[in-house]
Amino acid sequence: MIYIILCLILCGVVFYKSTIYKRHRRSLWNKHVAITGGSSGIGKAFAILAAKEGAHVTLLARNVDRLEEARNEIKQNTVTQDQIISKVPVDVSCPEAVENNLLEIEETIGPVYMLVNCAGFAVCGKLEDLSERDIKALVDVNLMGTIYAIRAVLPKFKKRREGIIVMTSSAVGLMGMFGYSVYSACKFALRGLAESLVMELKPYNVTVTLALPPDTDTPGFENENKSKPKETKLMSESGGLYKPEVVAKQLLEDALKGNFFSYVGLESFILTTLCVGMTSVNSVLELLLQICLLGPLRLIGTYYIKNFEKIVAKCFSENHVQEK
Ligand SMILES: NC(=O)c1ccc[n+]([C@@H]2O[C@H](COP(=O)([O-])OP(=O)(O)OC[C@H]3O[C@@H](n4cnc5c(N)ncnc54)[C@H](OP(=O)(O)O)[C@@H]3O)[C@@H](O)[C@H]2O)c1
Ligand SMILES: *[C@@H]1O[C@H](CO)[C@@H](O)[C@H](O)[C@H]1NC(C)=O
Ligand SMILES: *[C@@H]1O[C@H](CO)[C@@H](O)[C@H](O)[C@H]1NC(C)=O
């Protein structure tokens, strides 16, 4: 039985990678790519890849110095003299600022073809330990910031009948996890937003890709690490730490091909397949694979969940002993 399950999973991975991804890959040559959170981590890695594809790149983030530093780094990765790499200091949680700044930059560089939403951050901790200020900021940046940026470009995408929207969710946008409460809620919300937009935008030739990065070695992750409860750290250990370049590379490929989910690694494959839900079907083969894999993967998922529960119980009793 176990053997059959393993075989199915192996076949799944091989098939999945080799056949589904043969969809037509669009080009970024001479196109305008706007990236919120493009001055650091996954967003910056994505910006570098876009520059290598011949795109004009606009970085949107708050800190001016980090923007300038990132812009210089991205400039070194351009492939032609004509590529324009620009920076826009803006807080994505302010809708007017996002809209006006994007308008302005479109006048000089041309219409945005691809919008990549990478601005975001995590604060961990048990729900009662989060400050009201942190809770509000998490929702304002991760969820509202993404909505505002998309709204600023959407009518133009629809008018031109082309465009690519990328949103950055997370593995905890598919499953809840100890210590992520509000962050997880925001990332779950992005999935609902993405699924709805896929339906709204399909007739307009605009695609939507939802990134589900695993733990990725970025300044943001280092910061998140500071607020992470012991339980969360123990649970994350099984997943490993990925490089932002690897996550961004996969994201670029998926976005250019119009794939809905973008993920890297076996664990994310398992999670994404388990949580496929009511997303639209890419191909008959993919559908067949999901039909075969969903049952067995529920079993594997149960193994993970049981382990997580054990971690929570262990930490709980340790804390209890300390309290006594
Ligand atoms: N790293 C991971 O393990 C991981 C895993 C899953 C999902 N993600 C998601 O991936 C995305 C990128 O994460 P990362 O790890 O690359 O983070 P990062 O290194 O901290 O980069 C975050 C970027 O977003 C910008 N930003 C933050 N708040 C902003 C605001 N209010 N307005 C405009 N820009 C803002 C930052 O610049 P300023 O601070 O200067 O504004 C920076 O450029 C986030 O949405 C994160 O939730 C990350
Ligand atoms: C859809 O958009 C792509 C570019 O993203 C373009 O090459 C293609 O011609 C468009 N198709 C239609 C039917 O407008
Ligand atoms: C996160 O913090 C732990 C200590 O709690 C440390 O061992 C680990 O190296 C840190 N990881 C990162 C990526 O900063």
UniProtKB/TrEMBL annotation:
<comment type="function">
    <text>Catalyzes the reduction of 3'-oxosphinganine (3-ketodihydrosphingosine/KDS) to sphinganine (dihydrosphingosine/DHS), the second step of de novo sphingolipid biosynthesis.</text>
</comment>
<comment type="similarity">
    <text>Belongs to the short-chain dehydrogenases/reductases (SDR) family.</text>
</comment>
<keyword id="KW-0443">Lipid metabolism</keyword>
<keyword id="KW-0472">Membrane</keyword>
<keyword id="KW-0256">Endoplasmic reticulum</keyword>
<keyword id="KW-0521">NADP</keyword>
<dbReference type="Pfam" id="PF00106">
    <property type="entry name" value="adh_short"/>
</dbReference>
<feature type="transmembrane region" description="Helical">
    <location>
        <begin position="164"/>
        <end position="183"/>
    </location>
</feature>
<dbReference type="InterPro" id="IPR002347">
    <property type="entry name" value="SDR_fam"/>
</dbReference>
<keyword id="KW-0812">Transmembrane</keyword>
<comment type="pathway">
    <text>Lipid metabolism; sphingolipid metabolism.</text>
</comment>
<comment type="pathway">
    <text>Sphingolipid metabolism.</text>
</comment>
<dbReference type="GO" id="GO:0030148">
    <property type="term" value="P:sphingolipid biosynthetic process"/>
</dbReference>
<dbReference type="InterPro" id="IPR045022">
    <property type="entry name" value="KDSR-like"/>
</dbReference>
<keyword id="KW-0560">Oxidoreductase</keyword>
<dbReference type="GO" id="GO:0005789">
    <property type="term" value="C:endoplasmic reticulum membrane"/>
</dbReference>
<protein>
    <recommendedName>
        <fullName>3-dehydrosphinganine reductase</fullName>
        <ecNumber>1.1.1.102</ecNumber>
    </recommendedName>
</protein>
<dbReference type="GO" id="GO:0006666">
    <property type="term" value="P:3-keto-sphinganine metabolic process"/>
</dbReference>
<dbReference type="InterPro" id="IPR036291">
    <property type="entry name" value="NAD(P)-bd_dom_sf"/>
</dbReference>
<dbReference type="GO" id="GO:0047560">
    <property type="term" value="F:3-dehydrosphinganine reductase activity"/>
</dbReference>
<keyword id="KW-1133">Transmembrane helix</keyword>
<keyword id="KW-0746">Sphingolipid metabolism</keyword>
